[in-house]
Amino acid sequence: MPKDTKALRGKTFLAICSFLFVLSYLLFMTFHFRWRGDGGIALLGAQRILRGELPYRDFFDFWMPGTFYLLAVLFRLFGQNLMVIRCLIFFTIGGLFLLVFLIAKKLNNSRTAAFLSIILFALPLPLFSYNHNWLGLLSACLAAHLLINPPKPGPTSIYWLCIGLINGLVINFIQWQGAGLFITCLLLLLPSRENRPSKVRFLLSFLGGAAFFPLLWCLFFWSKGALTNLVKATIFFPLTNYHRGNLHLPCQIWMTTTLFYILLWINVLKENPASNKALRPILLLGTTFHFLTLTSPTPGHTALSYAFTSPLSLYLFNSLRPYLFKSRYFPAPSFKALFLNSKFIKYTVGRILTILILFSFFARPTLNFIARMNYIITKENILLNTPKGSLMADSRWARTVQTIEQYLYAKNIPQNTTSIYIGPWSPGLYFIFSLQNPTRYAHLGPEHYTRAVLQTIISDLEEKKVSTIIFLPSETFAYQNKPNLLTKYLESNFKPVIYLKPQPQNPEPYPKDAIWERNN
Question: What percent of the chain stands above pLDDT 90?
Answer without folding.
Answer: 39
